[in-house]
Amino acid sequence: MNDIADAMTGYGRVIEYRAYSSDFAPDSCKIERVKEGKFKKGKMDGYARKFTGLKGGNCFVGFFKDGKPDGKLEVLDKDGYVIKQGIYNDSECIKEIEINNYTTRIIKTGKDAQNEKLLAGAMDKATAGLKTAGELTDFQKAKNAAKSPLIQAGDLAKTKLI
Predict the structure, then answer these.
(1) CA distance 56 to 24
(2) What is the pLDDT of residue 101?
(3) Structural domains in the chain, sorted by start
């Protein structure tokens, strides 16, 4: 596979098998693993799945970088039971967590949430001096009026017919 690895970039499926006879008879070939998902130069890179056949029959689902787990990853046994799940960095599980979805490579940590609160607080302070809709200057009112239609919905219902 190394001879074609540079051409293997994009989405695909790779089926690796081993021939146990020199004539490559179908009954002597066994699937070792199946990889599917996003590839970069022949290695899993991004969201992908890897199924192993001979080595325990596990399924690895999650994010990879340079062919190694990187981000959310879940390992399932051949019956679909979760063996391990967590956040990985270069094949090492750095934090065991329960994975609910794979919409992003990583999850937000408590520190990320705290930073978002600090950012929201800073935005509140920054906008505190701005005038509200009721306190618009004459220029802002004129500018807003120029953008709005001359007849508003319901205006005709308010007029008196003579």
Answers:
(1) 24
(2) 76
(3) 5-96 (2.20.110), 110-156 (no CATH)
